[in-house]
Amino acid sequence: MSDEILTLPEVAQLLKVAEKTVYSMAQKGQLPAFKVGGQWRFKRADLDQWIEDQKAASRDGESK
């Protein structure tokens, strides 16, 4: 597992979505995130697990 910490723009690039989408999802608790000095940060290992969970949910026919 990686202890790498990503910024909001880096996560947007990783997920191939708009920064605004990542911001909104983080605020709603839909993405694993935390704030440092008022700015969102994301642990790479948590995001990797979240992605795997989303893939599993899609295979099981579940929605978000």
Describe the structure.
The structure is a single chain. This protein is an alpha+beta fold. The protein is built from 3 helices and 3 strands; from the N terminus they run βααββα. A 3-stranded antiparallel beta sheet has the order 1-3-2. α1 (8-15) packs across α2.
Descriptive keywords:
single chain, 64 residues, alpha+beta, Multidrug-efflux Transporter Regulator, Chain: A, Domain 2, three-stranded antiparallel sheet, 3 helices, globular
Question: What is the gist of this entry?
Answer:
This protein has 64 residues and is α+β, with helices and mostly antiparallel strands. The model has no long low-confidence stretch (mean pLDDT 93). The chain has three helices and three strands; from the N terminus they run βααββα.
